[in-house]
Design a protein that fits this description.
elongated; two-stranded antiparallel ribbon; single chain; 74 residues; 2 helices; mainly alpha; 2 strands
Length: 74
């Protein structure tokens, strides 16, 4: 997968992942899957929607994970 996407849950991060970190990971994922670093104008809207959807799913995942018997929150 993308080597530049880092683990966003404890204990990999000492604190909760920020919105910015979650969005950066989502952007890297969408870039990798689409094959576009920066989409053409006619693909920008769908690209941006995909980044937002992945970021939302990531935040939901992080909020629901149980890490060492505790709930992690994003």
């Amino acid at each position: 997968m993308c080597r530049s996407i880092k683990t966003l849950r404890p204990p990999a991060l000492p604190e909760e992942a920020t919105e910015e970190e979650i969005r950066a990971a989502a952007l890297q994922f969408v870039r990798k899957v689409s094959g576009f670093r920066a989409p053409a104008a006619h693909n920008r809207e769908v690209f941006d929607r995909a980044v937002e959807a992945v970021a939302e799913a990531t935040a939901e995942l992080l909020a629901g994970l149980e890490v060492r018997g505790q709930k992690a929150s994003a």
